[in-house]
Amino acid sequence: MIKKVLFPVDFSLVSEYAFGNCIPKFFSTGAAHELILFHALDVDLQSPQELEVAEKLEKKYMDKIEEISAEFREMGINARGVVRLGTPALEIAKIAEEENVDLIYMPMKGENILREMLIGSTAANVARIAKKPVLMVRYEWDRGKKAVKCYWDARRVFDRPLLALDFSKCTEKIIQSTELFKEFVKEAILMHVVDYGKASELEKITQEAIQKLNEIANKLDFPCEVVVHSGDASKEILMTAPSMNATLIVIGKRGRNILQLLMGSTAEIVIRNSVLPVLIVPCD
């Protein structure tokens, strides 16, 4: 069960859309108990005068967040707000640790979203540095309707998750993360991508992977479908999830080596290109 959800607020159209649509629907399922609304004031303080201005801004935004929190409380959602000075991504990761939240709900922009909305780099940086699971949700700008478009159904996000398992220590962390939402899962997809070994060994490796996935499935508290593909891991995950009607991609995140820094890790590529929500599970 998810006890605490941290939602970073930037007072953009994305935030407003989430306030009025996604968050109430998400909490209406009983998936979470408490909502923490957080805003970071990214200001560079060089003088006492600037500090005084920043403190006034902090109070202004705290008043705004308290108004929103009060609206959520009227809906029956246990909500409260926090405002701090600092770099948004760093402060989001820090308060997530301090509050021991179960989940960080992080909106991410699509290619066509307006500039004034949540900056994509903040979402990406939170995904990289946070030590708590991060739910990345994509939004786009609908030019025709001139409104924010969300690609997910907040009431069904945990219905059919695809768990991307590579049999590293990340696999155990991903399986542990299902404790947060297992009562809402109707059926999960356990997926492994074979991107290693010799071509002549592919059939043997595939059968071994299927056996491992079946062993994991037998230990879980919900029905599972097992899938093994071969090829590039990120591409296979991105193609398989929508084709199998997944409602969520769950993937692990590890510290990156030099090659991953240059090319991008599987998790980062999936985050960048997935239309579906992506739950990032820290493995380190």
CATH architecture identity of the largest domain: 3-Layer(aba) Sandwich
> What is the CATH first-level class name of the largest domain?
Alpha Beta
- Give the rounded overall mean pLDDT: 86
Secondary-structure element series: EHEHEHEHEEEHEHEHEHHE
What is the multimeric organization of the chains shown? single chain
Q: In whole angstroms, how far apart are the ends?
A: 22 Å
**Rg calc:** 20 Å
SS-derived structural category: alpha/beta
Can you tell me the CATH topology of the largest domain?
Answer: Rossmann fold
Helix amount, in percent?
A: 40-55%
What are the low-pLDDT stretches, counting only 5+ consecutive residues below 50?
110-119, 257-263
- How many DSSP H or I helices? 9
* General shape: elongated
Number of domains in the coordinates?
2
CATH superfamily of the largest domain: HUPs
Number of strands: 11
- Main sheet characteristics: 11 strands, mixed
